[in-house]
Specification:
elongated, transcription regulation, 3 domains, alpha/beta, 4-stranded parallel sheet, Rossmann fold
Length: 338
């Protein structure tokens, strides 16, 4: 019966490389993988099944990811980073959607536990709070949380600096000559929405600007929220010269509503978004926004989880990625407006 050593000799590679190709435990170039697989086929190598390997190693080389379903492409772009990073790390990924439902989250966790995943990535921003019954199930499993609010579960956390992002967004509007600035927040029960709003307030305070409470509207992180927020701004009387929307989806809804009313962006109102989802640079005008490194968020989550699986005793860490402003066409200098 052929062994991995026999395959290594025929393929001209190391035994460890053969093991990585057959067990899919590390990324190997396509050319080398093809040589190994061809050698294994020629020698009629009978690889042990994934199930058999998992019983032997107590690993399945599979990660589970639970994410909130949303129309926001932000989630899909982060998942793409997670999936690609899993592939390069030699892991499979099982993705579950909760649709913001606590029962579905419980069911998803139960399913993934039954499939004996090696660890969990949680990206469920609609499920705020403790949810002690859910989290208790994960207490002895490697877990990485992405952009969730404060939770009791001791685990690694990957997040963007939402406070800094909100501050930078508002500062960019101020530096472009705007003093009458409105804000569409996300749902303020959400940690990210609250932090972006706090960043907005800090920038306004540091600039010595007064916040008009009529120009602060709580949205829903969806296009509809931005669309409805514009009606609230109009009902308040005079419009601000610039508006910071807590994410790109609400900014797009706001711009759509403004266009319907014949209000030009950025001539009449400048608009700032947050997330830098792929499609916003192809809008007209292209959206000025705060860039979140979505692929790096996904990669950081996988890297942290794989490290946690390898060393469960390591203290939990928080990895915070810094946002940057992407200046485009939806913000004009106030002095250029007539």
């Amino acid at each position: 019966m052929a062994t991995m050593k026999d395959i290594a000799k025929l393929a001209g590679v190391s035994t460890s490389t053969v093991s990585h190709v057959i067990n899919k435990t590390r990324f190997v170039s396509d050319e080398i993988a093809e040589r190994v697989n061809n050698a294994a086929k020629e020698l009629h190598y009978d690889a042990p099944s994934a199930l058999a390997r998992s019983f032997k190693t107590n690993r399945t080389n599979t990660l589970g990811m639970i994410v909130t379903t949303s129309t926001n492409p932000f989630f899909g772009e982060v998942v793409k980073g997670v999936e690609r990073s899993c592939y390069h790390a030699g892991y499979n990924l099982i993705l579950c959607n909760t649709e913001g439902d606590e029962k579905r989250m419980k069911a998803s966790i139960d399913t993934l536990m039954q499939k004996r995943v090696d660890g969990f990535i949680l990206m469920c921003s609609t499920l705020e709070g403790e949810y002690s019954e859910i989290l208790e199930k994960l207490r002895n499993v490697p877990v990485v949380v992405m952009d969730w609010g404060p939770i009791s579960l001791p685990c690694d956390k990957i997040q963007d600096n939402s406070f800094r992002g909100g501050f930078l967004a508002t500062k960019h509007l101020i530096e472009n000559g705007h003093t009458q600035i409105g804000c569409i927040t996300g749902p303020l029960i959400k940690h990210q929405a609250q932090m972006r709003y706090q960043g907005f307030k800090r920038a306004m305070k540091e600039a010595g600007l007064t916040i008009n409470p009529k120009w602060v509207v709580e949205g829903d992180f969806e296009c509809e929220g931005g669309y409805k927020a514009f009606a609230s701004f109009q009902q308040s009387g005079a419009l601000p010269t610039a508006i910071f929307a807590g994410n790109d989806m609400m900014a797009m809804g706001l711009i759509n509503a403004a266009n319907e009313k014949g209000i030009a962006i950025p001539h009449d109102i400048s608009v700032m978004g947050y997330d830098d989802i792929h499609i916003v640079k192809y809008m007209s005008p292209s959206l000025t926004t705060v860039h979140q490194p979505k692929y790096r968020l996904g990669k950081a989550a996988v890297d942290a989880l794989v490290a946690r699986i390898g060393n469960s005793e390591h203290p939990p860490q928080i990895v915070e990625l810094e946002p940057t402003v992407m200046a485009r066409g939806s913000v004009s200098f106030k002095g250029d407006m007539s």
